[in-house]
Amino acid sequence: MDQKLERIATAEAPAAMGPYSQAIRAGDFVFCAGQVGLDPASGKIVDGVEAQTERALRNLEAVLRAAGGDLSRVVKTTVFLADMSDFQAMNSVYARLFGEHRPGRSTVAAAGLPAAARVEVEAIAYLPRA
User: 39-43 — which CB contacts under 8 Å span 24+ positions?
Assistant: First the structure.
């Protein structure tokens, strides 16, 4: 059965910086675009890898809330780091915010992240329709 794709958007996370959506629902899955540590209120990137990781995950959480979920529904993340030496700092914040929930994850080094960010996180969540 062909289901309609649904665009997810919220003002609680930074607006898309280009021709893409904050997230797209496809059936029971929500595919979230990457989020950086951009404060949606100020439009500025926060300082430091830990703060950027927390802000990026809070931004993802806001997008997931707009879709009817939260971080506990995430099944896969991809973390992009401008410098792999930031892995431990990112990982400690990531572990704290996900708690006992452990989605699949890939972490890769990536140069030139948006807004000169040091970290970007994208996610796929399983959110069955009621």
Answer: 39/14, 40/11, 40/12, 40/13, 40/14, 43/14
